[in-house]
What does this fold into?
Amino acid sequence: MLLSECLGRITPAQAHRAVEDGSALLADVREEDELRAGHAPGAILSPLSRLTEGAALPGREDGRDLVLIRRSGHRSQQVAHLLVERGVTAVDVTGGMRALAAEGLPVRDAHGAAGTVI
It folds into this structure.
């Protein structure tokens, strides 16, 4: 699946597969304390507060597309639109971390143990 063929949103399972196969980078746009409590393995921290101020995206050196995730998906959709306006191929995860956890996909805390979505 090419993220550029999506209409801005993908399911948690699609996001998981894209990150697992290396075709996309998962950017968690929550704040650091939320990420420490529970995040998808391999996610990088890119807080919404910094992105809206124009901060550079970490981990973009390799040119992979971005999959954005937040707690419920609403604000990550806004960030995806912001980044697309900047010329970045970005999609967000429908339902966010809550949906990812509800589908039984892995959520880890800062120590690698089972995490929670806050």
